[in-house]
Amino acid sequence: MATKATLTALAKLTGMREGVLARTARADFADHPDRFKTFSVTLDDLLFDYSKQRIDAPVLAALVELAKACEVEAKREAMFAGEKINITEKRAVLHTALRNFSGEPVRVDGQDVMPEVISTREKMLSFAADVREGRVRGALGQPMTDVINIGIGGSDLGPAMATRALSPFAPPKLRSHFVSNVDGADIGDTLRGLDPSRTLFIVSSKTFTTVETMTNAATARAWITQGVGEAAVHDHFAAVSTQLDKVAQFGIQPTRVFGFWDWVGGRYSIWSSIGLPLAIAIGPDRFNEFLHGGYEIDQHFREAPIERNIPILMGLLSVWNRNVLGHATHGVIPYDQRLGRFPAYLQQLQMESNGKHVQLDGSPANTATGPVVWGEPGTNGQHAFFQLIHQGTEIIPLDLLVAATPTDADAHHHDLLVANCLAQGQALMHGRTPEEAEAITHKQGATEAEARRLAPHKSFSGSRPTSTFLYRRLDPRMLGRLIALYEHKVFTEGAVWDIDSFDQWGVELGKELALSLAPVVADKAAGTAALDASTAGLVAHLRGLRGAEAGG
Ligand code: G6Q
Fold it and tell me: Ligand 1: residues whose CB is within 6 Å?
């Protein structure tokens, strides 16, 4: 339950709201020429600029007080120490152990997990190298040209996002695919045109019971059996799971099964064997660089004072935007086409972790918790939904991400990309007053009356908050850094809101009901009397449509 100190700190912040909003961001910059320097942090080749957020020095100080009142630092150390901070599942939260290069032990129930982490990683990376270098061959002796990961949620989004982000580091002759949806179109479209004798499947599932993954795995198995023969399953499948007995039943050879542990949450599992498709794509050395990027952020998170601690600041700014300024959504706009799946990845990381309605003790949350997270790459978004961000009635804080130099892309294009990223932050902060709009329109040839009429439409309030992440280059290490920053941001928010950021009961109810509805959908004779009227009505209508199709 939130302590008195936390509530006092939040109340103090709420009291600062009107003062901050009474000023414009433009005035903030004009009055404080050192604002950029004050409200930005550099961590070698990564800059976090939050000077365009609606804060001032007293607000930042009050946010730091809030972090202290919520004991963010003590809670952080409890996580790194392997305490069972996922209290509803009674689990430690140790994705950080997967990228721990300190040489120090990490204990769960008194047992150092590092030897097993290291040996599992070595086994996984050696298999990845064998696939890349053509030593893993299909039943007909062909090297693999296509690797298909079958998984969903945490067993899909991380490797899918990262493999796309780091595609310049992958060999062109080895293609990666990701199948997640139970919609047969997903696997059907993926398999079309592929050669089963050169295709390797990785079945990724922590529990090895998830219906989507098991259904897709069965379809893949049938495809291999049909194409290369039943005995080929042995050569064309690998698996990643914590449930080794269930994997064995599927018929996957034990040397191709890569484990992980219940203290790795699905949405935090990219660092584990779940990263196998990424390791195959970019190779073991680069996968290690990716892990090192995460480790560097862990060190920063543990060592930097709150005022200079990027993930803690990200979390505190989110609390300020959500709880004090009342902004219900948060946009992530990477100016990097290859980070196209990064917003979806962060959507799961943030919304599944912090979309919670009760505090740790089960009492109702006393503030709003996780915002809606969404986004698309720039510059595309600018030609679509940015209209609302500039002139709509909702204020949407944004994270803008951009690399100084491109990876395997044209430098001139990249200059334009960066210019657009900076221009959006500038426009959202600075805005354009009605007077300015009127003068510009008049100068462009409109009559004074016409310019005045158009001024409200062509003016921008400005003072719309953004943070900018500017880094040298999107390489494996930088991607590891970016992901870890957001993981610890989520941790910080959860520590303030006093919620369990590591369970996900919200996804369970739908799964349960889908299982009980599946036979009703499949069998037109199954009774619907026990269903609510809407669901029963939908089932009846569905049967009608299918009947008409069959009849017609
Ligand atoms: C992540 C969630 C969820 C999970 C999927 C897949 O934190 O728990 O997205 O990753 O439901 O679960 P399996 O890996 O068990 O198939």
Answer: 152-155, 205-207, 210, 213, 265-267, 352, 504
